[in-house]
Amino acid sequence: MAAPPSSAPLRVVLIEDYPILCAMLRDMLNELDGVEVVGNADGEQAAVAELERQHADVVIVDLELRQGSGLGVLACLQAGSERYGNPRAVVFSNYGHSALRARCKALGAEHFFDKSFQMDELLEFIQAAASRH
What we know:
Helix content is about 40%, strand content about 20%. With about 130 residues, it is of the alpha/beta class. The chain has a five-stranded parallel beta sheet, with helices on both faces. The longest helix has 14 residues, at about 120-130. The radius of gyration is 14 Å and the shape is globular. The protein starts with 9 loop residues before the first strand and ends with a helix.
């Protein structure tokens, strides 16, 4: 008996300005079952354009970008979520002080992961999202 067709993968867009980290994250995420990185950007305008093009399920946002900021990306997502396919947003940043975390949450970020020590938690979150997708 043939296995049932698999469901569509969880579509992820990475917003990260550091090329080495972006490539590493892309590779790690693409190794997860049911996850596909469909795009990335290193600046706010490029991120908004990529999100409009891709209609991802999840967007991983760094706050420090080459142009603009991750807060600007989150604000765009919050203001026009239908335009971008209503993706779940998570932040992956080194800047994790409480006021900034609160600002990200107010802009619709579901979780905040610290780059310094929460890479595994980010990957676990994405794997869990894919398993429920």
